[in-house]
Amino acid sequence: MEISDERKSTAKSNGNGFFKKIKGIKNIQIIAVVFIIAIGLIIYSTVSTSKSSGGTDTAVSTVMTADEQRLSAILSNIDGAGKVEAMITKQGDTVMGVLVIADGASDILVRVRLIEAAATALGVNKQVVNVYSRK
Fold it and tell me: Around Cβ 118, how many Cβ atoms within 10 Å?
């Protein structure tokens, strides 16, 4: 007479049933690979986004371009202009707008000279040049 322990066989059959169900799913390997790739892409996008932001805002740059530095240097030589900062907004190669901030821009004559000089230097219409005085 043989004595069998049903508890062990029941535990084994429950575990085997779970694996049998998983193995029974068609293309389980493809599903697993797609799942792993999806998780990898999520992790990669999170890491690459945090690296690109790097604590600075990529949409706003505080570094002046060579053209902006050159324009600022030229405009600061105008009598009464004082310290000058310039920002040039471009779309492709076309200048869309020019912003000039100068110490002496509160004087209307200096403001007009700055507008004319910036428009001439960049070869743009005077209407795209805006000049403001510094605080």
Answer: 26
**pLDDT, tens only, 28-84:** 788 888 888 888 888 888 877 666 555 544 444 568 899 999 999 999 999 999 999
Q: What end-to-end distance do the CA atoms of the chain give, in Å?
A: 103
Residue 57 has phi, psi (to 5 degrees) of -85, 120
Nearest to 131 by CA among 59, 93, 63, 76: 76
Mean pLDDT for all residues in the chain:
82
Q: Residue 7: helix, strand or coil by DSSP?
A: helix
Find the helix packing angle between 66-76 and 108-122, rounded to 10°: 140
The CA distance from 81 to 79, in Å, is 6
Q: Would you tell me how many other CB atoms lie within 10 Å of the CB of residue 84?
A: 23
CA dist 50 and 17 (Å) reads 44
Strand partners, 86: 100
CB 40 within 8 A of CB 53: no
What pLDDT is stored for residue 61 in this prediction?
A: 55
